[in-house]
C-alpha cells in the first residue's frame, strides 16, 4: 500500500540531519522545527503529487500511523489528482471531507499533524495551507459490561474511545441542556477529558469545582479515568472512594439526570460520577430494573453482607481469643472440637486463611480467564480441604472465611470492594489486641473516617448524616418510581423536581 | 478572638437533641442506681424525676442567658465581667472539661480491667482513645456531632435490651413509695448530678447552630429523653435488685445485662461493655472540643494545636489514678464541680446577665 504513494523527498529538506533538528528545541512551535522533529520518525511522510489536469504540484504532509489510508485514497488523493485543482481555494469544492480548514496560521501545525490531520501545500508554499481530517479510529466493539453485569437491562458498556462514549450518552439523552465541555490534561499525553452536566439541573458550584480541579491538574500523562478520579478526590488519604466509577452508560445517564457531574476520559472505558454517597457504592444499577420490593431486599442484603464480611472473622478471633464465655455451651462444643488439634492461635489461623483468599483473588485477577478458573478450584477446594485435614485450620473458620469472601463480592463497585478487602486486616489486628473492645474501637474509627470523607465537599454519609429524610427513598431501600419525583436533596440541584408527582400518582377508581 | 462560624460549618437545630443526650449519657448511667439508692433507697426514682425537672429549669435559664448574649461561654463572661476575666473563666472551664474527659476514660478503663482484661494498660488504651478523639475533632464540629448521632443510634439499640429483666422484676421492692424524707430524696438528686450534667454543653455549641432559636424545643426534648431513660433504668433496677444487693453493685446497669441470653450469645455484658465505648466516645469528643474551643477563644490558638496538647495532658494524668479509691475520689470531685457549676453557677450568671443587661440598657437610654 505504501508503494502507492510516490515517495519523493525534496532536496531542500533532505539536508536536515539529526544534528540540526536537535538544536532549535526551544522553539518547538515554529513550523520548521516541528517538521524537523517529526522527520526523525519513520511514520512521518511528505509526499509530492502532480495534478493530471492542471499540472500543479502539491504536497501532503502527515503522520502515517494516525491516518486512515482508506479516507486518504478514496476521499482525498483520487480527487486531488483527477479533478480540476489549480489553487488551494478550490479544495472545499473538490474534497468530500467535512473537517477541513484553509489557514495562514501555522501555529496549529503540530497539534493538527499529531491528531491525524493532513497538511496540504501547493507548490511548496507555506503561506496558505490546508488541513483536512483523515484520522484512523481504532475502537473496540461495544461489549457487555463485565464488572457491573446485570441480568436484565441494557447490555452495553463504555469503550476506550471518547467519541464513542459520548455518543452512547448523547443518544439516550437527546436534549440541548446536556453540556459537554472538553479539557486537555497531561503535558505529554494531552488526554481529552470531557465534563458532562445538565444545564439548569446540576448544581453550578459542583460543575465549577470539577472544572477547576481538572484544569488545575498538573501531571504528565493521564492514562485512565481513575487517574483523574484519584487526583480530584477531596482527600487522597482516605481509603473510601470519593467518586463513583461506572462502565454502564445507563448508570451514567441516571447520574446526570439526578444532577451529578460526569467526567469521561479519552482512552478509558469508565466514567466518573460525583458527588457521590456511600450508599451508592452498594447499589447496583440492576436495582432499578427490578421491582422495588425485590431490589430493596437486595440492597439490605448487600449492606448486611458488607458488615458481615468486615466483622465476622475479627469477631471470631476476638471471641476465641478472649471471650469464650460469650458462646453458649452447645455452640462451644462445636467450636471446641474443630479447634482442639489446631496448633496456632486464632489470629494466625484467620490471617493464614484470609491471606490465602487474597492470594487466590489476586492470582485469579492477574491470570487469563481460563487459567483463572482452575486457580479458583485448586485454591478454594484443594487448599481449603487440605488445610483442614492437615489440622492447620479449623473447619468452622474455613466456613466463615468462605462466607465473608462471598459476602464481600456482593458489592457492585469494584473499588469499594477493594476498600472492604483492606479494612478487614486492621479489624483483625484490633480484635487480637483488645477483643470485642478492639472491634468497637475499629468501628468508631471507620465511622469517624466516613464522617470526615467528603465528595466534592459534600458529606459522603448523606442521607444518614447530615440527615435528609427525603433522600431515604433511594438508600437502603428503593421506593417505587412514582415516589422518586424529586432529585436527591443532598445534591442541591438547581431544579429539584424530576417530574410531576401528582400526574405520576393519578389513579383511576375501580371499574373506570 | 472573635468567633466567626461559616454557614456551611453550622448544624441543623434538631441535632441539639443528640448533642444534649449524648453529652449527658456516659459513665454515669452504668452506676447511678447505687448512688441514689444510698440515700433515697427505692424512692430513688423520685430523685430522678426531681432532677429531671431541675435540669429543665436550668436549661430554661441557659436559653434566657443565650437570648440576651447570643454567643458562647466566653462571650457571656465577657458580657458580664469583661474580656480579661472571661479568659480566666474560660481557662477554668478547660480544666473542668479535662477532668470530665479523664473521669470518662479512666472510669471506662477500670470497668474493662475488672470485667474483661485485668492487665489492661490504661496508658496505651488512653492513647488510642485520645488519638481517635483528636482525629474526630480534626474533622470539625460536624464530625463531632456525627459521632454523637452514631452513638445515640447505638444507644437506642441497647435500651430495649434492659427489658430482659422484666420477667424477674419484683414491683414490691418499690414500696413503700415516699418512704424517705425530702432531704434524703434531695441527696439522691445530688447523686444524680454526674449523670445529669453535660447539657451545659449548649453554652459552647450555641454559635454553631443554624437558627438557634429553633433548637429550644429539641434541647428540652433531649433532657426529657435522658430523664425518661434514667427513670426507666432506675425503675427496672430497683425492681430487679433488692436494696441490700444493690448497695454492693458499683455498676448495676452492667450486671443487669448478665441476664440477657440469646441463641448465639450467653454473656451479653461483654458485648455491652465493648459497645459502651461507642456511647462514651462523643462525651470525650465534646469535652475536648469544648476545651479546644475555649483555648481558641481566649488565646487564639488553633484547635489543631490545642486539642492534641490538652489530650496529651489528660493522658499523663490517666495512669496516675491507680486504684479504685483514687478513681472514685476523682469522679466524685468532678461530679461535685459539675453539680456546683450547674446548680449554683448557672443561676448565678443568669442573674448577672440580667443585671448587666439592665445596666447596659440604662446606659444606652441615658446616652
TrEMBL record, chain A:
Compartmental location: Cell membrane; Membrane
Keywords, in A-Z order: Membrane, Transmembrane, Transmembrane helix
Comp. bias (Basic residues): 1-12
Main location: membrane
Compositionally skewed regions (Basic and acidic residues) per UniProt: 13-28, 501-512
Mode of membrane association: Multi-pass membrane protein
Transmembrane residue ranges: 300-322, 396-415, 427-448
Region (Disordered), start-end ranges: 1-28, 487-512
Family per record: Belongs to the GerABKA family.
Protein name: Spore germination protein
Organism: Pallidibacillus pasinlerensis
UniProtKB/TrEMBL annotation, chain B:
Endpoints of the signal sequence: none
InterPro entries in UniProt: Spore_GerAB
Superkingdom per UniProt: Bacteria
Membrane protein topology class: Multi-pass membrane protein
Cellular compartments annotated: Membrane
Keyword set, alphabetical order: Germination, Membrane, Transmembrane, Transmembrane helix, Transport
Membrane spanning stretches: 12-32, 44-67, 88-109, 115-137, 144-165, 185-206, 218-241, 270-291, 303-321, 333-357
NCBIfam families: 2A0309
Protein family according to the UniProt entry: Belongs to the amino acid-polyamine-organocation (APC) superfamily. Spore germination protein (SGP) (TC 2.A.3.9) family.
Official protein name in the record: GerAB/ArcD/ProY family transporter
Native source species: Pallidibacillus pasinlerensis
Amino acid at each position: 500500500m505504501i508503494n502507492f504513494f510516490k515517495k519523493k523527498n525534496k532536496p531542500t529538506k533532505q539536508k536536515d540531519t539529526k544534528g540540526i533538528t536537535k538544536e532549535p528545541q526551544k522553539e518547538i512551535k515554529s513550523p520548521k522545527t516541528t517538521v524537523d522533529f517529526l522527520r526523525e520518525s519513520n511514520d512521518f511522510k511528505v509526499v509530492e503529487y502532480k495534478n493530471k489536469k492542471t499540472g500543479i504540484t502539491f504536497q501532503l504532509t502527515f503522520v502515517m500511523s494516525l491516518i486512515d489510508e482508506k479516507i486518504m485514497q478514496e476521499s482525498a488523493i483520487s480527487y486531488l489528482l483527477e479533478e480540476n485543482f489549480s489553487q488551494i481555494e478550490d479544495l472545499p469544492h473538490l474534497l468530500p471531507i467535512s473537517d477541513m480548514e484553509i489557514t495562514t496560521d501555522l501555529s496549529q501545525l503540530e497539534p493538527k499533524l499529531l491528531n491525524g490531520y493532513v497538511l496540504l501545500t501547493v507548490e511548496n508554499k507555506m503561506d496558505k495551507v490546508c488541513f483536512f481530517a483523515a484520522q484512523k479510529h481504532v475502537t473496540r466493539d461495544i461489549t457487555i459490561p463485565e464488572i457491573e453485569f446485570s441480568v436484565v437491562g441494557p447490555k452495553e458498556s463504555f469503550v476506550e474511545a471518547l467519541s464513542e462514549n459520548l455518543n452512547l450518552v448523547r443518544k439516550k439523552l437527546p436534549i440541548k441542556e446536556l453540556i459537554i465541555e472538553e479539557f486537555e490534561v497531561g503535558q505529554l499525553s494531552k488526554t481529552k477529558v470531557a465534563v458532562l452536566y445538565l444545564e439548569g439541573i446540576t448544581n453550578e458550584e459542583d460543575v465549577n469545582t470539577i472544572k477547576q480541579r481538572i484544569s488545575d491538574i498538573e501531571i504528565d500523562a493521564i492514562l485512565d479515568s481513575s487517574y483523574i478520579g484519584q487526583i480530584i478526590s477531596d482527600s487522597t488519604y482516605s481509603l473510601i472512594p470519593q467518586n463513583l466509577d461506572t462502565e454502564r452508560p445507563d448508570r451514567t445517564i441516571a447520574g446526570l439526570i439526578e444532577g451529578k457531574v460526569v467526567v469521561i476520559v479519552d482512552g478509558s472505558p469508565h466514567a466518573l460520577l460525583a458527588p457521590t454517597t456511600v450508599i451508592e457504592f452498594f447499589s447496583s444499577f440492576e436495582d432499578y430494573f427490578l421491582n422495588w420490593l425485590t431490589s430493596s431486599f437486595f440492597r439490605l442484603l448487600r449492606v448486611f453482607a458488607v458488615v458481615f464480611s468486615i466483622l465476622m472473622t475479627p469477631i471470631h478471633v476476638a471471641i476465641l481469643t478472649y471471650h469464650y464465655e460469650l458462646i453458649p455451651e452447645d455452640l462451644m462444643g462445636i467450636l471446641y472440637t474443630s479447634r482442639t488439634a489446631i496448633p496456632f492461635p486464632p489470629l494466625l489461623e484467620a490471617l493464614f486463611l484470609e491471606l490465602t483468599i487474597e492470594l487466590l483473588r489476586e492470582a485469579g485477577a492477574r491470570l487469563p480467564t481460563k487459567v483463572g478458573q482452575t486457580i479458583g478450584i485448586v485454591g478454594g477446594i484443594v487448599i481449603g480441604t487440605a488445610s483442614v485435614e492437615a489440622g492447620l485450620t479449623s473447619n468452622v473458620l474455613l466456613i466463615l472465611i468462605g462466607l465473608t469472601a462471598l459476602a464481600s463480592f456482593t458489592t457492585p463497585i469494584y473499588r469499594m470492594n477493594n476498600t472492604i478487602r483492606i479494612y478487614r486486616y486492621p479489624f483483625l489486628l484490633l480484635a487480637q489486641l483488645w477483643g470485642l473492645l478492639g472491634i468497637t474501637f475499629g468501628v468508631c474509627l471507620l465511622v469517624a473516617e466516613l464522617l470526615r470523607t467528603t465528595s466534592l465537599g459534600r458529606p459522603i454519609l448523606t442521607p444518614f448524616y447530615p440527615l435528609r429524610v427525603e433522600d431515604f427513598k433511594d438508600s437502603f431501600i428503593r421506593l417505587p418510581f412514582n415516589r422518586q419525583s424529586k432529585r436527591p436533596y443532598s445534591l442541591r440541584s438547581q431544579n429539584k423536581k424530576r417530574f410531576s408527582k401528582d400526574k405520576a400518582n393519578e389513579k383511576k377508581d375501580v371499574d373506570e | 478572638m472573635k468567633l466567626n462560624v461559616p454557614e456551611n460549618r453550622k448544624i441543623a437545630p434538631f441535632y441539639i437533641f443528640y448533642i444534649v443526650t449524648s453529652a449527658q449519657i456516659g459513665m454515669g448511667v452504668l452506676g447511678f442506681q447505687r448512688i441514689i439508692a444510698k440515700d433515697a433507697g427505692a424512692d430513688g426514682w423520685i430523685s430522678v424525676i426531681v432532677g429531671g425537672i431541675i435540669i429543665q429549669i436550668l436549661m430554661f435559664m441557659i436559653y434566657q442567658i443565650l437570648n440576651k448574649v447570643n454567643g458562647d461561654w466566653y462571650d457571656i463572661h465577657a458580657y458580664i465581667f469583661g474580656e480579661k476575666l472571661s479568659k480566666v473563666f474560660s481557662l477554668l472551664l478547660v480544666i473542668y472539661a479535662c477532668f470530665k474527659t479523664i473521669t470518662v476514660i479512666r472510669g471506662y478503663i477500670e470497668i474493662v480491667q475488672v470485667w474483661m482484661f485485668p492487665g489492661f494498660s490504661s496508658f496505651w488504651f488512653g492513647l488510642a482513645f485520645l488519638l481517635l478523639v483528636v482525629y474526630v475533632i480534626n474533622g470539625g464540629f460536624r464530625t463531632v456531632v456525627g459521632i454523637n448521632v452514631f452513638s445515640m443510634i447505638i444507644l437506642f439499640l441497647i435500651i430495649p435490651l434492659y427489658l430482659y429483666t422484666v420477667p424477674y422484676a419484683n414491683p414490691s421492692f418499690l414500696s413503700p413509695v415516699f418512704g424517705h424524707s425530702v432531704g434524703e430524696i434531695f441527696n439522691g438528686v445530688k447523686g444524680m448530678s454526674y449523670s445529669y450534667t453535660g447539657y451545659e454543653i449548649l453554652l459552647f455549641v450555641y454559635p454553631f447552630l443554624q437558627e438557634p432559636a429553633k433548637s429550644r424545643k429539641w434541647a428540652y426534648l433531649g433532657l426529657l429523653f435522658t430523664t425518661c431513660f434514667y427513670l426507666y433504668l432506675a425503675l427496672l433496677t430497683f425492681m430487679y435488685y433488692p436494696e441490700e444487693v444493690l448497695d454492693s453493685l458499683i455498676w448495676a446497669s452492667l450486671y443487669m445485662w448478665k441476664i440477657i441470653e440469646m441463641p448465639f450469645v450467653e454473656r451479653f455484658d461483654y458485648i455491652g461493655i465493648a459497645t459502651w465505648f461507642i456511647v462514651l466516645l462523643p462525651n470525650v469528643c465534646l469535652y475536648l472540643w469544648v476545651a479546644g474551643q475555649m483555648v481558641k477563644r481566649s488565646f487564639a490558638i488553633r484547635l489543631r494545636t490545642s486539642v492534641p496538647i490538652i489530650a496529651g495532658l489528660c493522658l499523663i494524668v490517666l495512669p496516675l489514678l491507680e486504684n479504685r479509691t483514687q478513681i472514685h475520689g476523682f469522679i466524685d470531685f468532678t461530679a461535685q464541680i459539675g453539680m456546683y457549676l450547674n446548680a449554683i453557677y448557672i443561676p448565678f450568671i443568669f442573674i448577672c446577665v440580667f443585671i448587666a443587661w439592665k445596666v447596659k440598657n440604662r446606659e444606652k437610654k441615658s446616652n
